[in-house]
Amino acid sequence: MSLRLGVIGAGAIGKEHIRRCTQVLQGATVVAVSDINLDNARAAVNALGLKAEVYADGQDVIKAQDVDALIVTSWDPTHEAFTLGAIEAGKPVFCEKPLAMTAEGCRRIVDAEMKAGRRLVQVGFMRPYDEGYQALKGVIDSGEIGAPLMLHCAHRNPEVGDNYTTDMAITSTLIHELDVLRWLLNDDYASVQVRFPRATSNTHARLKDPQIVMLETRKGTLIDVEIFVNCRYGYDIQCEVVGETGIARLPEPSSVQMRKAAKLATTILTDWKDRFIKAYDVELQAFINDVKAGELRGPSAWDGFAASVAADACLKAQESGALETISLPERPAFYLR
Amino acid sequence: MSLRLGVIGAGAIGKEHIRRCTQVLQGATVVAVSDINLDNARAAVNALGLKAEVYADGQDVIKAQDVDALIVTSWDPTHEAFTLGAIEAGKPVFCEKPLAMTAEGCRRIVDAEMKAGRRLVQVGFMRPYDEGYQALKGVIDSGEIGAPLMLHCAHRNPEVGDNYTTDMAITSTLIHELDVLRWLLNDDYASVQVRFPRATSNTHARLKDPQIVMLETRKGTLIDVEIFVNCRYGYDIQCEVVGETGIARLPEPSSVQMRKAAKLATTILTDWKDRFIKAYDVELQAFINDVKAGELRGPSAWDGFAASVAADACLKAQESGALETISLPERPAFYLR
Amino acid sequence: MSLRLGVIGAGAIGKEHIRRCTQVLQGATVVAVSDINLDNARAAVNALGLKAEVYADGQDVIKAQDVDALIVTSWDPTHEAFTLGAIEAGKPVFCEKPLAMTAEGCRRIVDAEMKAGRRLVQVGFMRPYDEGYQALKGVIDSGEIGAPLMLHCAHRNPEVGDNYTTDMAITSTLIHELDVLRWLLNDDYASVQVRFPRATSNTHARLKDPQIVMLETRKGTLIDVEIFVNCRYGYDIQCEVVGETGIARLPEPSSVQMRKAAKLATTILTDWKDRFIKAYDVELQAFINDVKAGELRGPSAWDGFAASVAADACLKAQESGALETISLPERPAFYLR
Amino acid sequence: MSLRLGVIGAGAIGKEHIRRCTQVLQGATVVAVSDINLDNARAAVNALGLKAEVYADGQDVIKAQDVDALIVTSWDPTHEAFTLGAIEAGKPVFCEKPLAMTAEGCRRIVDAEMKAGRRLVQVGFMRPYDEGYQALKGVIDSGEIGAPLMLHCAHRNPEVGDNYTTDMAITSTLIHELDVLRWLLNDDYASVQVRFPRATSNTHARLKDPQIVMLETRKGTLIDVEIFVNCRYGYDIQCEVVGETGIARLPEPSSVQMRKAAKLATTILTDWKDRFIKAYDVELQAFINDVKAGELRGPSAWDGFAASVAADACLKAQESGALETISLPERPAFYLR
C-alpha cells in the first residue's frame, strides 16, 4: 500500500522532495501539493505528470481525506503552524528545518506532539542518515576508541552570497552540526563560546568569517567547530572524534585518485548539494518506512527544539564573546530513544 | 504503472532480487516466482508477504499474461533456455551471469534477439553500475589522462572453498573484469596470456593461485589483472588506468579513518557481497526504468557473448602458457552503443 | 678546519650530542666534556674513543683555550649560568631548552648577548629544522593558501610517567609548539586561553589530560593546540594551517603502506625520539656551519625568551580559565630576521 | 682519521660526489682529482677551495701514495679499467654504474676482486640505501606478509631526451630495479619477457614507450615493471610487494597535504635527482664507513655483474618478444651475504 503524501510548499526543496518521492523512493505517492502561489504547485505536479490535487492553502492539504502524511517545505516562518496543524489532524509530518523560528515555537510543537500521545513529527536533519556519519557513530558506539573526549569539526563552503551574515553561520550552517553531533555523541550541550580569528579578505562587513564555535557537552566532551563559508577551495565537512584510546574520522567522499601534473589528488566537492545527496533520499525513505511501520524514529521535534535552544545560545555567544550556558530542559521520557 | 516481474529461480540470488524489487527499488512488483523446488518459490513469496503466483516451471512464468518482464536467477545451465524463451515471448529479461554455458550458447541468444528486432536482454554484470567505475570511466572519457595505454588491475578474495579450481579464476572471478574493462575502455580484447607466479601456500593442488592475466585490446592497451583468491587480507578490487598524461585509479570503498594502536588505517572489506551491494540495486533499477522507457541500455547479450569468448581464450591460455588470440566477430550494428 | 666543541653535561642528551658530533655531523670535534659527576664525562669520552679533556666544572670548559664553541646539555637550572658564561667568554653556545628557568632568566641572556654585540646563542628548538615543518613553511610563505587564519594542531604522546603534571603539558610539551608556530607564522602571540575537556580515564589526579590551548597571534591568527599525553595510540604531531584560499597540513612521517588483516594502514610512530631524529642532526649541523660562517641563524635567545613568556601566560591561563594576555616586548632590531 | 679519497672524473656526477664528501659526509677528504680535461679537475678543486692534487690520468690518482680509496665517476667506458686498476693497487673503489660496458667486463672485475682475496669494489647503486626501500625490505624480512609472490613496480619519468632509445629503458632506467629488486627479495632472476603496450603519442620512432618487463625469479616471484619515460605527470617510482598474507608498498615521498581549488593533493616529484637525493649521501657515507671498518658491505661487483647479465637478457627479450632465460652463474661463496 503506497503512502499518500501531501506536500506543502512547492519551491526548490519542495519540488526536489516531490521528485524524490515519485522517482527515487519506494512506497509513497504524492497526492496533494500546495503553494501560496498556486501556479507553482500546478507546475510541480505537471512537470512529473502526477495525478495530484493542488491547493493554495497548506491547511487544506493537511485536511485532505486522501492524505496520509505531510511534507512541509514551505516558507520557514510557516513551518510551525503547518506542523501543529498536522499534529492536530493526527497525521505524521516531515518538516524541513527549521521546525520553528524560535525555541519557543519548537517547544509548542513538542508540547502538542506529547499531548497527541505519539510521535508524529520528523525534522529534516539529514546528516544522521549519511553513510559516513553512520559509520563514524558505529565506531564510537563499538567502544573501539573509548569515551569521546574531543571533537574537531569543520564546516566549510567555497563562498556565500552577500546576504549571508554572521548570525547565519549559526542558523544556516552550524545548525547541522548542532543536530548531528548530539546524535553522534548521544549527549547534550552544556555551554558554548565563539571565537573570531582574523577574517578572510574574501568576506564583507556584515559577515565575520571564519568563526570557531566551542561547545561543551554535559559529559564534558569539548567540541570545536570551524565555520568558514568563504574558504574558496570546496565544500568540506570534517569531523574527527578523539577518544581515550584512538581517533576516528568521518570518511572523505569517495573519489577517483589521480596522478597528473605533479599532483597525487582526489577531488573535493564544491557544491553542498552533492555532499549529502544520498542522505536526503535515505531520510525521506526512512520517514516513509517508519510511518508505514507505525513508529517514527528519525530526528524528532525534541531534536529540533534542542538544536534551536543551542543555536540561540550560540548567537548569544557570538555577541557576548563569553561562555554561554545552554539550558535544555531534561528530555521527557516521551522522547527517550 | 508498476512493472510486473516474473522471477525464475528462487535460490539465494533469486530471493535477494525479489527482496530488492519489493523493498528497495521503485516501479516494479514481483507477480510471479518459479523454482524447480516449488516450496522454495512459495517460501520466497511468503517471506515478503507478496501476492505473487508460484510456478514449478520457469517457462510458465514467461508465458504468464500478467508478467511484463523476467528475471532469470535459476541454475546456470538453464539460463540460456529461459532467456531464449523470454525473447520468443517478446518479454524483456534480466539474466544473471552467465548468459549461457558456452560462447555458442551466448551467440544463439544474440541471434535470437537480433531476429526479434529489438534489445530484450540485459546480462547481470553489475560493475558498470558501480559508482566508482562510473567515476573512473568519466575521467577516461573526459580525456584528462589522454589515451589509456595500460591497466593494472587486481581481483582479490580473502579465501575460496575447496571446490574452487584454477579455471574458476577465469569463469567466476575474472569474468567481471572481462566485462567491465571492455565497457571502461570502449574496446575489445585481441589476445591473452596467463602467467603463474609462485603459488601461495594457502591453496590446494587443483588451484594455481595467484595468476596474472595479460590482456591486450584491439587498440593496444595492455591490461594486467592479478587474480589472487586466497590473499587472506580482504576482498579488494583494484583498477589503475595509465594514460598518456596521467593515471586514474578506482576509488577505495569509503571508510572511517582510524588512528589506533600505532596504525593510521581504513577498513578493507572482507565480504564480496558488501563491495558492489549498491551496484546490484542500481543495475536492477536501471533494468526496470529502461524496460519502462522502452529501450534497454545495460550490458547486452552481445556483452555476455564477448565476455564468454574472452573467457574461453583465457582458459586456453591457462593451459597453453602461450599468447592466445581472442577472436570476437565484429559487433553487429544492432549492438552499437 | 674542524670546530672544537666543549660539551657541558654528559647525561643522556649530552652523550647523544657527543655521538652526533663525532659520528654523524661534519666539521666539528668534541675536545672537552664536563659533568658534575666526573665519571660520567669520562665514560662519555671513552665510549667513543675521543681525545677530549674532561672537566668537573662547565665553567672550565668555557674557559678552555682549545674550545671554540659550547654545547650546554647540563641540568636545566644551570643552563642560564653556562650560557651567560659562554657569552662572557665570547664563545658561541648551543643551549638545550629551556634557555633559563624563567622568562627573566631568558631576558638576562638576551641582554648579555645584545651587550656582546653579536649573536652567540642558539637554543635547542629542533622543529624548525624538521623537513616537514620546513615544507609547510614553504607553502605558507609562497602565498599559495593566502594569509593563515587558523591553525589546528595536536601534540599527542602515547603515555607519560606519573610525575608528569598538568603544568608540564605547557613547559615540556607545548613549549615546542610555542617555538615552532611563531617561526612558522612569523608572528607573535597576543593571548591564550586553556580549556579542559573531559579527562581520559588513563590519567591521574595531578594531570588534567587532554587540554586545548587556544593562542591568538598579533595578526589575529587563532591557533588551537590539542595536548593529549596519554592518547595511547602513538606519538603524533599534527599541524594544519587554514589560509584564505586553501589548507596545508604537516606531512605524516613516511611509512610503508600495508594491506593486511582487513586494514589499509600506515604506521604511526610511538617513540617521540624517532619523530624528529633527523631534525636533531640538522639543527646541530646548522649550528656548526653557522658558527664557522660567523653568523648564527637558528632559534635565538630572543626566541627562547619569547617561548618562555608565552609559556608563563599559558600556565596562568591553565589556572585562571580566562583569556590571558601574552606581553612580549617589541623585538629589538638586534634580533630582526 | 679522515679517509683520503681520489676522485677519477670531474664531470657532473664527479663534482657532485666531491661536494658531497667535502660538505655533507663525515670522515673523508678528497685529496686527488683527475679528469681527461685537466681544467675540469682544477675547476672542481678550486670551486670548493680544496687542497687536492689534480691529475690528467686516473691511473695516477690510483697510484698516488696519499690516496686511500677511489671514487670512479669518469666516462662509462673507462669504468672497468679504473676499477681493475684500483683492485690491482689494493685500494677500495666506489664505481658509479655501470661497473663495465658488458657482463664480461663485470665478470673480469669479479674475478680480479676474488683473486685479490677481499672485497674492494662497491657499485653505485643507491636504492638499497633509500629509507623507503629499507623500510619495505624490513617488512618483507619480518615475515609480516608471508613469502613474496608478485611485485608490481613502475618507473616513470616525465620525459626523456630525443637520444633516449628503446634499449635505454633497460640500460639506463630498469637497471635500478634490476639491482634493487634482487636485494629486496634476496633472490635472483630466472627469466624475462617484455611486452609493448600501445605507445604514447609523446614518444618518437626510436623509443617504444611504455614497456612492461616481466621478470621471474628463481623462487618463482613474478615481477612486472612498467617503464614509462614520457609519462608527463612526474618522476614516480612504485613498488608493491604482494605476499601470501598481505601487501606492502614503497612509501610515497613525504609531502605537505593541500586542500586547494577543489583538490586534496600531495606533490609528486618531477626531477629524478630529488627522489633519491638522500640515498646518494647514505651510500657514499656507507662506503667511507665500511672502508674505515675494513669490510665493504654495499652493492658488490657481483651485484654489478648480476644486473648486467639480467640487463642483457632484457635487451634480448625486447628484440625477441619471447621469454628469455637469465643465466647467472651460482654466486661464489666469496660474495655470500
From TrEMBL, chains A, B, C, D:
It comes from Cronobacter universalis NCTC 9529. One of its GO terms (biological process) is inositol catabolic process. The gene is iolG. It holds the Pfam family GFO_IDH_MocA_C. Keywords: NAD, Oxidoreductase. Residues 4-125 form the Gfo/Idh/MocA-like oxidoreductase N-terminal domain. Involved in the oxidation of myo-inositol (MI) to 2-keto-myo-inositol (2KMI or 2-inosose). The keyword NAD applies. It comes from the Bacteria. One of its GO terms (molecular function) is nucleotide binding. This is Inositol 2-dehydrogenase. InterPro entries: Gfo-Idh-MocA_inositol_DH, Gfo/Idh/MocA-like_OxRdtase_C, Gfo/Idh/MocA-like_OxRdtase_N, MI/DCI_dehydrogenase, NAD(P)-bd_dom_sf. The keyword Electron transport does not apply.
